[in-house]
């Protein structure tokens, strides 16, 4: 294997192994920032050794052993300098004096639990949502600061500062490296699921920039969701979220045209939808519904996505059921955006005038004041009703509010179509 091939292999291995590595070390040192630093030390050691010695048979175990030895060396130096080493998971005396592999391997047994702890730490409510997103992608997605900055169109120094502050905040707050229990578990789980959901959504329809999709973010979110399913197999909303992501991801190949332009749901070639992802999503949805009679918000959204997935052509879509599911979601989790989506479903089931009546009740909603999809949806209803001049104005307003270049072009084209029709 050439040096270039070895470095490429190391990059791929790091992407897979870094969350496990950081999680295992964080249980040892009880400090996420220090754990990441020690994991990076192991990565540097791999970059120095593997091009010469070759990639080991079990690279993950090599990285873990190297990082743990570095942790022991760090503890020894701290002790020799007379510093206090706080909150270690294992007795410092034993760690500093023992070098045998049995000790090194002894803390590998609960790696699944360690990953779960790391997810809950990265999504701790002491952090802002932006910090949770950045830290989760860094620690669990294996993304570099540059990759995170590029994905969210934020300057790299901003992301770097956000991550540094997040790790410092966790340390200063003394956030325990553990999975919460009882009511706190459910409250914190909601944050974890929201972070994964938002990461996927940013990849599925990018907020800003020149690309409508960022597939790597979708892949990272789906991988995190699958990890959660393996770690929390009895939590129905975890399965519900994964069901939603699997089904949504199945459409990725049909959502972009040859030049990267958006192709809307009703115009997509459904033969290009990934049937394997759909089957996985439907199976996850069935499991979520079997685990709990009362569907949660992610399970309801997955049920809506399933209605589209089961329709081989757009005309077969059960819009009445979708409208009913949105009504159920609205009752469970009231939101102007949910109501806007319900309006779309109602318009498809009962006509654009019925959808317009719902949308018009949202015009004074403060949270939608600068939300480009409100005038976009209203423009679509007006277009279908033949009120082309009004529709053009709505599409132009939507375009002025949109931040994604592809979406702006789509809305401009729709406004132009209204002008041509009116002429």
TrEMBL record:
Q: Give the InterPro entries listed for this entry.
A: DUF6596, RNA_pol_sigma-70_dom, RNA_pol_sigma70_r2, RNA_pol_sigma70_r4_t2, RNA_pol_sigma_r2, RNA_pol_sigma_r3/r4-like, WH-like_DNA-bd_sf
Q: Which Pfam families match?
A: DUF6596, Sigma70_r2, Sigma70_r4_2
Q: What is this protein called?
A: RNA polymerase ECF family sigma subunit
Mind listing the GO molecular function terms for this protein?
DNA binding; sigma factor activity
Q: Name one GO biological process term.
A: DNA-templated transcription initiation
**Which intervals hold domain RNA polymerase sigma-70 region?**
19-79
Specify the DUF6596 domain's residue ranges.
188-288
